[in-house]
């Protein structure tokens, strides 16, 4: 395979260019690549409901996809901190879920090409990896980078999925300024958005709010809403019907399990009251938080203890989005 072309980001010194190019292999069969949108669906410390992973799996299974870059996971992943699952069956090892980080070229339902960055968030060499992503943005003509993931939130599964949006520039997303200033643990996704903005590139992010009692399950409702947000922000035609059908089927099972416990039912009703009170705010500026005043809610630990016994078997713990059945067809958003 030919050596990857050097990635020049801000005309950095030779050692910095080498730091970038030794992190990935270019796939020559990808051909000439040009895409105005890059979707960042990396999964790592936080992807409640496996929302970003479900989106990545859905897009690569339903749309024409070609590999552009494959990153060297041995340089980027801490295997001892995040041990990949292995399968032991009939006295022998039969499978190994090898971690990956890849950049794919995807064609939407109208033929528009976009880039999809997916796989595990790097544990190591954040600066070099972020430089490589920014170099790809500049090399392939990306005009807007859209990051997605799920976050656990005190919301009920019986209400529409809400999304927290943010961007490098005012006007890129329509959202009130409700949080002020907070400091949170960093992520590669956040660092990519920050440095893209500092380099003069457009970047937006959408965080789907997932019921925290379902954070470990595959929550298709959040994934479907993230696809809608990507389609709107990126002016793309993306299939979403299969995710919506999976969400409807899962909702029936969730409701069955919730209704089996009066304690869990009470928690969900309290979350519904809180959600509805929030949405009834007179103006967006008054909707300051989803952890609002109308209901005295139990703590996340209390909710988790009450729900765990009833929802633990909602999704097979050994099943990952990559192992699920492929999605075919479905409604298209544009």
From TrEMBL:
Pfam families: PAC2. Coiled coil: none annotated. Residues 311-334 are annotated as: Disordered. SUPFAM superfamilies: Cgl1923-like. InterPro entries: Proteasome_assmbl_chaperone_2, PSMG2_sf, Rv2714-like. This is PAC2 family protein. It comes from Georgenia wutianyii.
